[in-house]
Write a structure and sequence with these properties.
Blueprint: E1 12-15, H1 30-42, E2 47-49, E3 54-60, E4 66-72, H2 79-90, E5 97-103, E6 111-114, H3 123-132, E7 139-143, H4 152-160, H5 166-189, H6 191-198, H7 210-213
Parallel strand pairs: 1-4, 1-5, 5-7
Antiparallel strand pairs: 2-3, 3-4, 6-7
Helix pairs in contact: 1-5, 2-3, 5-6
Length: about 220
């Protein structure tokens, strides 16, 4: 594990998802959505990079540091191949990689930033951990809710590969913007600082009810 006395600041930001129009805007592709939002904010052009097996772009983040954005095009369960190709090329340590992905254990409207941890059953993260050789790298999980039905395996697949409802999509637009804000703070002050300020934010609770909004 990296020395926590030194702030962990990402140098490569990866969004997990599946390539192709049929997966566009599905729950499983929220990592892609954040990368696209960052690319717009930072005026970074993403283009196909065969060596990296993904859509890749470089530019200057708000902290004026050179930042790299990656959307693997390997499909979710092989995402680690793409991530490892970039880290090897630029000689980046694992702790400099921030991975963004969906999480059914969090409700829509919540996000969770962590410095390390297990894959939690997420196949893209399993691949990332296997190819980086460690689970000690930061990750940002965005809640997509849970179908909570008896036919778990079948309904889980249809849930993660399905699209958000209209109401959920409105919340997710705010979540993606909040995720970008959290990432920009992590670049300025480190991931731990961003964790302390953003992990308890709940966009599913109406902002006009501060009593509810303060609950975690």
């Amino acid at each position: 594990m990296a020395n926590l006395s030194t702030p962990i600041v990402p140098q490569l930001i990866v969004g997990l998802g599946n390539p192709g129009s049929k997966y566009d805007k599905t729950r499983h592709n929220v990592g892609f959505d954040v990368i696209e939002a960052l690319a717009r904010r930072w005026h970074v052009s993403l283009s196909e990079h065969r060596k990296f097996q993904g859509l890749f772009g470089e530019g200057l983040a708000p902290n004026r540091a050179r930042m790299r954005l990656l959307k693997p095009t390997t499909y979710m369960n092989l995402s680690g191949q793409s991530i490892r190709a970039v880290t090897d090329w630029f000689k980046l340590p694992p702790e400099s990689v921030l991975v963004i992905y969906d999480d059914m254990d969090l409700p829509v409207g919540r996000l969770r930033l962590r410095l390390s941890g297990s894959a939690g059953g997420q196949k893209g993260m399993k691949s990332a951990i296997a190819h980086l050789g460690t689970q000690d790298f930061p990750r940002l999980r965005l809640g997509i809710g849970n179908p909570k039905t008896a036919n778990a395996d079948k309904d889980t697949i249809s849930h993660v590969l399905g699209q958000f409802s209209k109401a959920e999509a409105q919340i997710m637009a705010e979540v993606v913007a909040l995720a970008c804000d959290a990432i920009e703070l992590s670049l300025k002050d480190g991931v731990a600082k961003a964790m302390s300020l953003y992990n308890n934010r709940d966009l599913s609770v109406p902002a006009e009810d501060p009593a509810l909004a303060d609950k975690t």
